[in-house]
Amino acid sequence: MNDEVKTLHSAAHWGAFRVHVQGGRVVSVSPFEHDPDPSPLIHAFPEMVYSSQRVAQPLVRRGWLAGDGGAARGDDEYVPLSWDEALDRGAAEIDRVRKTHGNQAIFGGSYGWSSAGRVHHARTLLHRFLNCAGGFVGQVTNYSFGAAMAFIPRVVGESEAMRAPLATLPEVAQNADVLVAFGGLPAKNWAVQSGGSGEHSYRAHMRSLAANGVRVVTISPFGGDRPDGVASEWLPIRPNSDTALILAMIRLICEWDAQDQDFIDRYTTGFERLRAYLDGATDGTVKNPEWASELTGVPADAIVGLARDLVGRKVMLTATWSLQRARHGEQPYWALIALAAALGQIGRPGLGYAFGYGSMNGNGNRGYDTPLRGLPVGLNPVGLDIPVARMADLLLQPGETIRFDGRSITYPDIRLVYWAGGNPFHHHQDLNRLRQAFRRPECIIVNEQYWTATARHADIVFPATTTLERDDIGGSSRDPFLLAMQKAIEPVGEARNDYEIFRGLASRLGLEDAFTEGRDSDDWLRWAWDETRKRLSVRGIAAPDFDTFFANGFLRMPEPERDPVPFEAFRRDPQANPLQTPSGRIEIHSAAVAAMGDPDQPGHPVWLDPEEWLGNESSRQHPLHLLTPQPERRLHGQMEQSAHSRAGKRDGYEILRMSRQDADARGIASGDLVRIFNARGACMASAEPSDEVLPGVVLLPTGADFHVDGADAGRSGNPNALTRDIGTSNLGQGCAAQSCLVDVERAV
Q1: Could you give the CA distance from residue 229 to residue 236 in angstroms, rounded to a whole number?
Q2: C-alpha pair distances (Å), 698 with each of 181, 435, 623, 646
Q3: Is the pLDDT of residue 710 over 50?
Q4: Which helix (H) or strand (E) holds 96?
Q5: 595: which residues sit within 8 A by CB, 6+ positions away?
Q6: Residue 599 and residue 247: Cα distance in Å, rounded?
Q7: Are 142 and 426 in contact (CB under 8 A)?
Q8: CB within 8 A of 98, min separation 6: which ones?
Q9: Would you state the pLDDT for residue 367?
């Protein structure tokens, strides 16, 4: 037996790491030596790569073989197949559906988080394969900030100050007097970054804010959203009411004649319409602090005090992505842009507004702009995409027409779903409804590493490799490292990488040459690096050849000459550098949005009742507002069965945080098993009363596995058994998970 321990390089969405292999098995991992604050989640790999939850071989659902029409999906047994038979059956189904019903009857589902690697990227490979096969119905936007993706370009022309470039947090620390953080700056969300990262920067950013004396104000229903390492004031607020607070602050600033009128006149359009609305000219309601206090629960004098503290100071306004994951979630972002415009500091270093600090590791980092490439996906001949959060509607309501971003979309009749990468039974809302939706198509095919709820609702399951079982390249434009991901072990069981799965299907459909272009996955890996080198060379950056890079394990990008300043050129000369909006300016009022004819979209930021929240009559039946934050000990649902994730539970149950007041009223003590419920579903959790939670609010993290029946029902506490499957609005059609009312009782 070979006792030598080999060390290899790898990466995941939660960071770069070193893999230690002995006798062909992963025995341990260690942090990347250049990461100042590595995530402990990397240590789940040795356990999870050999987990009993791995899909070990190709399988087909017994009821599907018997022609049950999908009735037993989620509850059925599986029959093992050889790879050849499984691929034959999968290819035959794809061919049958496209020839009988057309390619618009195929839905290609993926959410892209399955691997940090860019070549073995399940979403890219799925789309490439299906495009070779004639196309598919796809998805646009995302669950994270889908509403904002649809409407922000209508306000400021691009996604600036939402994804990239963001004002860097070092620039904020150097230039701002005040940082107002709606949704806070929670440390846990800085652990992950799409594409992986070699440098976790949260603590350095917080130290920089503290060292420069920046005043940080956290506005959130949960005190735990305050940042670590820097003093922060906490202003508790009712969920979904942030828009009212922001609108009242804008009106106060204008009432004091403290707005930057020169900025408003030169760089915005439609501010006077918003001003009339704030003064009650359009609806008879003056948006004063007393009005906002009734909605938000924030005392009127605190609203006045916060607004006054912004006047004459250098201010950065920020909101987490979660703020817009609610009914009418477009409105708080739009209102925050209007408040930043009133203060007149947009386009100045470290000031103005930014969305996403506290939502992912890279947000607020310097802009390294690494030009990493995956495989080209080609053109989709079907040309139809739905908003990602409307997936259950697509499956359940063929022929229905919805409005999205100013246009109409009619759902086709989906007969086949192919899912590779991600787990919709984590991301989606009202999972009991999604379960019904997954029982409707004629066939569901899934590539999966683990027995997720999505795999358990499939008819054909192809076992896929993990990051440690293939070579790849990772990295992110907001991180200084390009990362080699070296194959550490041979595939566990009969797993194959996604590229080989799709190559096998393509071969059976006569499409192998189109899919592979004569390359195997190693050839594509070298192609991707060569493309990256070319793009770096244009920027004057010399990158080594592939073999040198891969042996070294990483390439560190040079530090940018300067940090990005969103809207800098626009502020310097708005005529020479107009925004990509109809007016060329920041559209505080958008005539295009108003022209959509949606009564919920008058064309400027507006307060709209979220329908399911603490200020609505519906709270009488279910009086607690459920918030579903990202988990601290896993990425979405990934690594949920690991010891690291389980250590964050209590007796196997997720922990529900609630105020002491609400717990006492229900006779609930710390550690009590509780049932969380509403008309859509129920789940179980272990209660933890807290002084950090606003009365009327409960918090249950996302990502637990979803079970319906049997001994495991509700044990893991998946909050999306409770959330409402409805779009943010007809404009954004984003995820509205944070508008959800429940009640809680002790479990008998």
Answers
A1: 20
A2: 20, 25, 10, 21
A3: no
A4: helix 83-100
A5: 603
A6: 19
A7: no
A8: 105, 106, 133, 134
A9: 87
pLDDT band at 711 (very low <50, low <70, confident <90, very high): very low
Q: C-alpha angle 532/533/539, rounded to 5°?
A: 100
∠ CA 583-601-306 to the nearest 5 degrees? 85
Distance CA 414, CA 136 (A): 10
The C-alpha torsion from 124 through 125 and 128 to 132, rounded to 10°, is -170
Is 50 labeled as catalytic in the residue annotation?
Answer: no
CA dist list (Å): 521 to 24, 120, 123, 126, 473: 22, 8, 15, 14, 12
Q: What are 220's two structure tokens? A: 């959130």
C-alpha distance across the termini of the chain, in Å: 54
Q: Kindly give, in sequence order, each residue whose CB lies less than 8 Å from that of residue 17, ignoring residues fewer than 6 positions away.
A: 10, 11, 29, 30, 31, 32, 38, 42, 45
**Rounded Cα gap, residues 727 and 485, in angstroms:** 38
Task: Tell me the DSSP string of 229-250.
Answer: SS-EEEE---TT-HHHHHHHHH
Those residues whose C-beta lies under 8 Å from the C-beta of residue 625, and which sit 6 or more positions away, are: 221, 238, 239, 240, 613, 614, 619, 696, 697, 698, 740, 741, 742
Condensed to tens digits (0 to 9), the pLDDT of residues 93-113 reads: 999 999 999 999 999 999 878
Among candidate residues 97, 725, 111, 135, the one with its CA nearest the CA of residue 437: 725
Kindly report the average pLDDT of the chain as a whole number.
95
- What pLDDT, on the 0 to 100 scale, is given for residue 115? 86
Single pTM value for the model: 0.97
What are 454-482's pLDDT values in tens digits?
Answer: 999 999 999 999 999 999 999 998 899 99
The beta-strand segments (E) located in 372-498 are: 384-387, 401-404, 407-410, 416-420, 443-448, 460-463, 472-475, 481-485
Task: List the catalytic residue out of 113, 321, 411, 529.
Answer: 113
DSSP 464: B
Name the token pair of 15.
């960071």
* Dihedral sign (CA 134, 137, 139, 140): positive
Closest by CA to 136, choosing from 473, 346, 381, is 381
| Catalytic annotation present for 613 | no
Please give the structure tokens belonging to residue 662.
């609400």
Per-residue confidence (pLDDT) for residue 114, from 0 to 100: 80
Q: pLDDT at residue 86 above 80?
A: yes
199: Cα within 13 Å, side-chain hemisphere = 21
Answer whether 387's CB lies under 8 Å from 93's CB. no
User: Distance between CA 482 and CA 112 in Å, rounded?
Assistant: 19
CA distance 376 to 108: 16
Residue-wise DSSP of 292-313: HHHHH---HHHHHHHHHHHTTS
Least confident of 170-184, 384-398, 551-565: 551-565
The secondary structure element, H or E, covering residue 586 is strand 586-587
d(CA 549, CA 559): 19
Residue 231 clears pLDDT 60, i.e. is over it = yes
> What gap in Å lies between CA 324 and CA 335, rounded to an integer?
12
Would the pLDDT of 705 be above 50?
yes
Both tokens of 705, joined, read 């596995």
Q: 491: how many CB neighbours lie within 10 A of its CB? A: 17
Percent residues over pLDDT 90 in the chain? 92
Q: Which residue has the tokens 């791995």?
A: 54
Least confident span in 247-251, 370-374, 612-616 = 370-374
Cis peptide leading into residue 289 (ω within 30°): no
pLDDT tens-place string over residues 117-166:
999 999 999 999 999 999 999 999 999 999 999 999 999 998 666 766 78
In angstroms, the CA 393 to CA 386 distance is 10
In the predicted model, is pLDDT for residue 713 greater than 80? no
Q: Greater confidence, 713 or 493? A: 493
Question: Hey, how many other C-beta atoms are within 10 angstroms of the C-beta on 183?
Answer: 29
- Residue 725, CB half-sphere, CA atoms under 13 Å: how many? 27
**Quick one: tokens of 674?**
């509780």
User: 78, 111, 334, 450: which is the annotated catalytic residue?
Assistant: 111
